[in-house]
Amino acid sequence: MTVSHMPFEMSAIAGSVDQLLESDVAPGAEFEEGYQVWKSEKGGIYSITVMQAVGLLSEMLEQNSQ
Questions:
Q1: What is d(CA 18, CA 29) in angstroms, rounded to the nearest whole number?
Q2: Residues 53 and 29 sit within 8 Å (Cβ to Cβ)
Q3: Is residue 52 very low, low, confident or very high in pLDDT (cuts 50, 70, 90)?
Q4: How far apart are CA 39 and CA 27, in angstroms?
Q5: Residue 50 near residue 8, CB atoms below 8 Å
Q6: Domain boundary assignment for the chain
């Protein structure tokens, strides 16, 4: 599964991760499209932990598949 764009508040990221694996990595091919949709819809950002946000995404996908 690929999530094209999932913006987080800096403090949510800082509270969710314990080490940096890589830096200066180019975004995936799907990023630009997801970013443009988010920008045009004046989307928000996640202030919950990454684990909580992934859990919500999983729940939404499960509901949509039923």
A1: 26
A2: no
A3: very high
A4: 16
A5: yes
A6: 1-15+36-66
Predicted confidence (pLDDT) per residue in 23-34, tens digit: 999 998 899 999
Q: How far is residue 43's CA from residue 32's CA, in Å, rounded to a whole number?
A: 14
pLDDT band at residue 58 under the 50/70/90 scheme:
very high
Length of the chain: 66
Alpha carbon 63 to its chain's center: 19
Q: Specify the pTM.
A: 0.75
- The answer to whether 19 and 57 have CB atoms below 8 angstroms apart is no
Whole-number Å distance between alpha carbons of 29 and 58 = 22
C-alpha 39/C-alpha 25 separation (Å) is 22
